[in-house]
Automatic annotation (TrEMBL):
Function summary: Catalyzes the formation of acetyl phosphate from acetate and ATP. Can also catalyze the reverse reaction.
Keyword Ligase tagged: no
GO molecular function, one term: magnesium ion binding
Protein name per UniProt: Acetate kinase
Bound cofactor: record note: Mg(2+). Can also accept Mn(2+).
Compartments reported by the entry: Cytoplasm
Summary of subunit composition and partner proteins: Homodimer.
PROSITE patterns, A to Z: ACETATE_KINASE_1 (PS01075)
Family: Belongs to the acetokinase family.
């Protein structure tokens, strides 16, 4: 069974093609494009590359295409994409303006280009279904919460992968197995003592930090929208809610203009006035650009704030993990984030830290009580496994029937 996963990130397109056969998972192909603005053209390039490599010449070559979709009204988990799922995503376009519109368009493009191939979505919010209610609520009236104003949490596929892989690296196969089975039994797979406490730092085009207790999320720095928490590439991150009516009144901005500026001209770009890409900012800061320096400093300050929160929620940590575009590749920022934490039992080894870029490795000293890791994420594998499971469930039921999640009913788009 061949499953393609298309990961439409806020700055990139990444894809991986997996073959599942006889209990084995094999990666057949992977690729990606950076600094993407036109996702339609990027997806055509992906399909072209898969065709030229001889892997996907037509619909018959694929069992399914999986998508790491962000959020939808009333839908989570792993579902067949139906018209009503797309409508539920569109209903939250204004909550995830950088993510939902390109995903809906991208899914429709696959439906046209690969007619008949099952299209399946694993929503990023799925990983937080079991997080404590106190970690997921805002202090707003109940009617706001009922309308969707609550913390949803994102980067679920990535933090799930880190939960599993970090448990393996920390010698905890029991916790890794619980994580693998999470969407089967809701985290009820038993684990041994002592508890494994991991802080997962996904730092990329969007960034988020999650405390993991025995593989389960206790929350996420991303809240109701993927524009919260740390400053994002060109999206705002945390902001006092009263700033919005204030700038509308005092600067005379329309609601649409406020939304546009918060989503396109804020974050690292807004702070630096230069770029939304950390590579440009590190280079420019080195050349004395004050805006770039400020953007990096705010990013580091915010990362430390959220790691501190995770440390407090977990009551300490056994491992701290850096992943995604920035976390995997940027030793200078990892060092700045972990500065002065020896008393907390976190001590980076400067040489190991400098040496690990885009690869898996431990970057803490032998003395460090908390082991610090770089783990390249594999969101696509997490999605592909759930897609496979859904197809197998459907086959066992004798066809693509009703899906487990609310709101997923309706005619399949493919
Ligand atoms: N080789 C690299 N060195 C340093 N930073 C990088 C590198 N590659 C990517 N980045 C940073 O990571 C971001 C992309 O993160 P990533 O998680 O891969 O993408 P997305 O958010 O689109 O899913 C870039 O915008 C850039 O800031
Ligand atoms: C929220 C999310 O999935 O972020 P990104 O697209 O940047 O990876
Ligand atoms: Mg991403």
């Amino acid at each position: 069974m061949k499953i393609l996963v298309a990961n439409l990130g806020s700055t990139s397109l990444k894809w991986r093609l997996f073959q599942f056969a006889g209990g084995e998972e094999r990666l057949l192909h992977r690729g990606g494009l950076e600094r993407v603005n036109d996702y339609g053209a990027a997806l055509e390039e992906c399909l072209g590359e898969l065709g030229r490599a001889g892997h996907v010449r037509g619909a018959a070559d694929l069992a399914a295409v999986g998508f790491k979709t962000v959020l939808a009204r009333g839908v989570t988990g792993c579902v067949r994409v139906t018209e009503s799922v797309l409508e539920a995503m569109e209903a939250f376009n204004s909550v995830a303006p950088a993510h939902n519109p390109p995903y809906v368009a991208g899914i429709r493009l696959f439906a046209r280009r690969l007619p008949g191939v099952p299209l399946v979505a694993l929503f990023e919010t799925a990983f937080y279904q079991w997080a404590p209610e106190a970690a997921m609520r805002y202090a707003v009236p109940e009617s706001w919460c009922a309308a969707g104003v609550r913390r949803w949490g994102f980067h679920g596929a990535s933090h799930k992968y880190i939960a599993e892989r970090s448990a393996e690296l920390m010698g905890r196969p029991d916790v890794a197995e619980r994580v693998r089975r999470l969407y089967v039994d809701g985290g009820r797979t038993p684990v041994a003592d002592p508890p494994l406490r991991v802080i997962s730092c996904h730092l990329g085009g969007s960034s988020s930090i999650t405390p993991l207790a025995n593989g389960l999320a206790l929350g996420n720095s991303l809240g109701m929208s993927p524009q919260s928490g740390l400053p994002q590439n060109n999206r705002v991150g945390d902001l006092d809610a009263f700033a919005v009516p204030f700038v509308m009144r005092t600067l005379g901005l329309s609601l649409e203009e406020v939304e546009r500026q918060l989503c396109r001209q804020s974050g690292l770009l807004g702070l630096s006035g230069l770029s939304n890409d950390i590579r440009d900012l590190v280079r420019a800061a080195g050349e004395g650009h004050a805006g770039a320096r400020l953007a990096l400093d705010v990013f580091v300050h915010s990362a430390r704030h959220w790691i501190g929160s995770a440390l407090a929620q977990l009551g300490g940590a056994d491992a701290l993990v850096f992943t995604a575009g920035i976390g995997e590749n940027q030793p200078e920022l990892r060092a700045a984030i972990c500065r002065g934490w020896e008393e907390l039992g976190i001590e980076l080894d400067p040489e190991k830290n400098a040496a690990v870029r885009g690869a898996e490795g431990c970057i803490s000293t032998g003395r460090s009580r908390v082991r610090v890791w770089v783990i390249p994420t594999n969101e696509e594998l997490v999605v592909a496994r759930e897609v496979k499971r859904l197809l197998e469930q459907e086959a066992a039921r004798g066809g693509a029937g009703e899906s487990a999640s609310a709101g997923a009913a309706g005619s399949s788009v493919n």
